[in-house]
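Dear Dr. V.,

Thank you for agreeing to look over these. As mentioned in my earlier message, I'm a first-year student in the group and I'm still getting used to reading structure tokens, so any feedback on how I've presented them would be very welcome. I ran two proteins. I've put each sequence directly above its structure. The first is here:
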Amino acid sequence: MADLSNIDLHDLAGHLEEALVHHGVNSMELARRSGVGQSTLSRILSGKQKHTKTSVLAKLLPFFLAKRRPS
């Protein structure tokens, strides 16, 4: 199993921003779809979140793996 303790949260924020643009959704919609709190997503995206639980990452993972919805 991968060592998740060394995830660079700035990289996570960048990838998350790219995924939001790719899927054409905002952080509020991602919060609704994933069950991750809007405030948690905001802290991740702003780089203020120093540590992120694996349970939060697990909720976000399907969003990264989902195919882009047709326009």
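The second protein is here, in the same arrangement:
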Amino acid sequence: MDGDIPGLRWSRGPSASLAILGRFAVNISYNIGLQYAAELLPTVVRAQGVALIHIMGYVASILAPFVVYLANISPELPLLILGILGIVGGVLCLLLPETMDTEMPQTLADGEDFGKDQRFWDNPCFPRITPR
């Protein structure tokens, strides 16, 4: 019995797993975007930023049927697109500044300065060990 990928037997399990993983990663990226908008955007533009993220989510919902339709060209194409979008979104989230224990920006000037004092690889999951 052939699966979804031509030439490979029993490939439905890996294909379904990749599809679920891609969808999961896209949802995580979207939710992280909403969370970061509430934390990073200055108060004066926060509503517009959150609205823009919602609009981009609706645009993605409009484009989703076209991505699914690409399966007529190649069965792997929708999985590849979802997987790549999820991975790119996750990697880009790693580049956002850390907001833990910091004062949130209130003005546009505060927003421009926010995160400038942080190093590129600062991460609360892997705190820097200072020698005693």
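From my reading of the second output: The chain has a mean pLDDT of 79. Residues 47 and 114 are 18 Å apart (CA to CA). Does that match how you would interpret it?

Kind regards,
E.
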